[in-house]
């Protein structure tokens, strides 16, 4: 069987089904979408679709937000316009940390968090907690179910630290004030950052955040 035969069968599908197929491919990687498009001009026509941009996997970009936004401006804008939650996470980091546009940055991070992007849930939650908006911040952190298992939140924090590399990180005075005012009792070992309970979890996560190294 020649390799063009199955491709011809795919090309004969209705456009809405083709777009759905490509959008599913997009969840795997941007490279797979490009290869898919190169295989046929007919398939390429269905690729610049809002649903494709919404689902496009941007994990390589999330590792280096500044590089992504500076080198793939048009692509990132299309992803943002299409409601790609990973794109909002990337934009939120750039605005909040690098440009100090805190309100705009938080808008993007909240949108991504409300879209259930885990890294944004953690980052928005810890920022709001450090800013003194404890109820809202803790509500978002609790969505990661750390009381059952801290692994998911810890994984998000590792991703976030990688995303923040090269960023300008300002230790705002309000962060330090919030941490000082919410120090747990001496019953918790505050020097052991890995052992966390309901009394010290938020405090230790805030400490990790304000002490993060981005260089």
Automatic annotation (TrEMBL):
Protein name: F-box protein
Residue stretches making up the At2g35280-like TPR domain: 66-163
InterPro entries: At1g67623-like, At2g35280_TPR_dom
Superkingdom of origin organism: Eukaryota
């Amino acid at each position: 069987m020649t390799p063009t035969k199955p491709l011809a069968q795919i090309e004969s599908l209705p456009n809405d089904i083709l777009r759905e197929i490509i959008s599913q491919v997009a969840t795997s990687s941007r490279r797979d979408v490009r290869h898919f498009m190169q295989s046929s001009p007919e398939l390429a026509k269905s690729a610049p679709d809002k649903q494709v941009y919404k689902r496009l996997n941007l994990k390589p970009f999330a590792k280096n937000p500044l590089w992504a936004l500076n080198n793939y401006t048009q692509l990132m804008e299309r992803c943002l316009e299409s409601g790609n939650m990973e794109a909002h996470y990337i934009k939120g980091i750039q605005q909040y940390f690098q440009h100090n546009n805190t309100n705009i940055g938080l808008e993007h991070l909240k949108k991504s968090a409300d879209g259930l992007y885990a890294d944004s849930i953690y980052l928005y939650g810890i920022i709001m907690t450090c800013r003194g908006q404890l109820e809202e911040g803790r509500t978002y952190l609790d969505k990661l179910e750390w009381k059952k298992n801290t692994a998911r939140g810890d994984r998000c924090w590792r991703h976030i630290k990688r995303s923040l590399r090269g960023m300008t990180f300002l230790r705002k005075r309000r962060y330090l004030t919030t941490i000082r005012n919410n120090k747990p009792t001496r019953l918790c070992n505050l020097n052991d950052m890995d052992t966390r309970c309901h009394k010290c979890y938020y405090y230790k996560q805030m400490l990790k955040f304000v002490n993060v190294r981005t260089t």
